[in-house]
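step=encode ok
step=design start
structure_in=
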């Protein structure tokens, strides 16, 4: 038997290793999209003369959310949109606006928790910083720039067991989760000084100089990465990340050990599924749908932000797409004379469209089997998981499941799949005596159209290091590729008014 391919998993490692923050994740997506021929457009511009059937486009908001789409050449106003939504953010520690701290000879950096992380996993890791910086340039122009410091500069040390023999590891997130950045004496020596100079002059609060708010050497390191002067560094949004890279693991190289699997794995699979569905030069020739991927920021904190899934980002994109006229070769005289009722095009598009909410799922845990419902125990490398909840914490229903199953059956054979055709699927339902998480699925279903929740199975969700199946990457990419290729056909076959 041929050895299964790890190409998709290895390509994903490159994506996640280059994406320590939502801003980097969007940039990683942009690089792949532009290589595949997608054109950058802006929300603030008119799309009337820009967007054409057969075209491929992407736009960003806050540079931490991105929407990419390809318009079929048979498109006309009111036609369906096949959508996949995922998110770019993960639980992390974020540098506070005033982060400069010093105690007992140590330099420390004040951080804020973002999302619901397993914070104990952040102790004793080799940490660094990444994110975006507002850089002051010529003529007063302030530019968004990305920073990723590759070497470890921070660490959150645990207290020796000899000094605190607690059975369960507990700590105060405000006072005991501050990383150390080095020794005060070493920093004074670097600067050629023997004692700290306290700057009491100048404005305080938000208007204080950046060197009063943050350790100067951290600003110097960021400036060096950017190739600018430290005085050019303005406000920034910087997160901590683990410098240990994502890797293939397991006895037979069947696992992935990585940070941010939730939800960069689904972000990667969505983008790759879209790109692969367009590999053929004639992919859009007979397609009357639009193929769309939306990667949102802020899912881990509820999505109710300007660039979250609960914003107007995707609804406004769909509204603008719904009235794009057909290409001249596919139009007719009556359409050219605006005989089509474009006032209802948006509602027709919503009624015929479908959204896959792609967010990682729970694999069965061999040490905690009692936490899982007996007949719904997803396993790694056995396919993407359809997530179901009777109380609509997930948006999946029977019609959506049928449509997805048909897309899975039409998918290209995965290299790890023993079936003759298609890719495997699994199902997950939480126990009745367990709480259930949620996703962007229900909120977007209420705003847009029919929705289904799914994700690849993983362990250690919200830890600094998570685990998933290496071959499930390929399963999901092939599933999403098939969904985009066949949605125009399947939408007509699975119809519930």
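sequence_out=
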């Amino acid at each position: 038997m041929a050895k299964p391919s790890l190409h998709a998993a290895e390509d994903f490692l490159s994506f996640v290793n280059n994406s320590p923050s939502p801003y980097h994740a969007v940039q990683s997506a942009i690089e792949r999209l532009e290589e595949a021929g997608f054109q950058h457009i802006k929300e603030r511009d008119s799309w009337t003369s820009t967007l054409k059937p057969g075209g491929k486009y992407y736009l960003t908001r806050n540079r931490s959310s991105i929407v990419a789409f390809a318009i079929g050449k048979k498109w006309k106003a009111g036609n369906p949109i096949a959508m996949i939504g995922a998110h770019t953010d993960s639980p992390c520690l974020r540098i506070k606006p005033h982060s400069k701290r010093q105690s007992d000879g140590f330099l420390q950096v004040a951080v804020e928790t973002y999302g619901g992380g397993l914070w104990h996993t952040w102790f004793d890791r080799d940490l660094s910083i990444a994110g975006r910086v507002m850089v002051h340039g010529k003529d007063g122009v302030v530019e968004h720039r990305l920073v990723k410091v590759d070497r470890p500069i921070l660490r959150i040390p645990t207290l020796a067991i000899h000094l605190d023999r607690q059975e369960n590891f507990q700590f105060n997130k405000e006072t005991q989760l501050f990383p150390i950045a080095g020794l005060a004496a070493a920093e004074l020596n670097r600067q050629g000084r023997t004692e700290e100079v306290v700057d009491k002059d100048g404005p305080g609060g938000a208007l204080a100089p950046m060197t009063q708010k943050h350790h100067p050497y951290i600003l110097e390191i960021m400036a060096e990465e950017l190739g600018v002067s430290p005085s050019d560094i303005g406000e920034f949004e910087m997160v901590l990340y683990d410098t240990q890279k994502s890797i293939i693991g397991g006895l037979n190289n069947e696992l992935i050990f990585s940070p941010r699997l939730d939800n960069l794995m689904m972000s990667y699979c969505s983008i790759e599924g879209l790109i692969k569905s367009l590999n053929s030069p004639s992919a859009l020739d007979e397609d009357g749908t639009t193929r769309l991927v939306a990667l949102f920021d802020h899912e881990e904190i509820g999505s109710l932000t300007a660039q979250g899934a609960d914003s107007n980002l995707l609804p406004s994109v769909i509204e603008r797409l719904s009235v794009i006229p057909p290409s001249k070769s596919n139009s007719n005289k009556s359409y050219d004379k605006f005989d089509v009722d474009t006032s209802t095009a948006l509602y027709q598009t919503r009624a015929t469209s479908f959204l896959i909410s792609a967010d990682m799922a729970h694999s069965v845990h061999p040490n905690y089997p009692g936490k899982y419902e007996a007949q719904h125990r997803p396993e790694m490398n056995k396919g993407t998981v359809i997530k179901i909840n009777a109380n609509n914490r997930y948006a999946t229903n029977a019609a959506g499941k049928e449509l997805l199953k048909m897309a899975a059956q039409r998918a290209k054979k995965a290299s790890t799949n023993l079936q003759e055709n298609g890719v495997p699927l699994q199902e997950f339902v939480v126990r009745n005596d367990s709480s259930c998480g949620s996703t962007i699925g229900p909120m977007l279903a209420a705003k847009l159209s029919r929705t289904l929740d799914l994700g690849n199975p993983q362990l250690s969700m919200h830890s600094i290091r998570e685990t998933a199946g290496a071959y499930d990457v390929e399963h999901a990419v092939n599933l999403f590729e098939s969904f985009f290729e066949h949605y125009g056909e399947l939408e007509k076959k699975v119809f519930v008014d």
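step=design ok
step=annotate ok -> Residues 333-339 have pLDDT under 50 and may be disordered.
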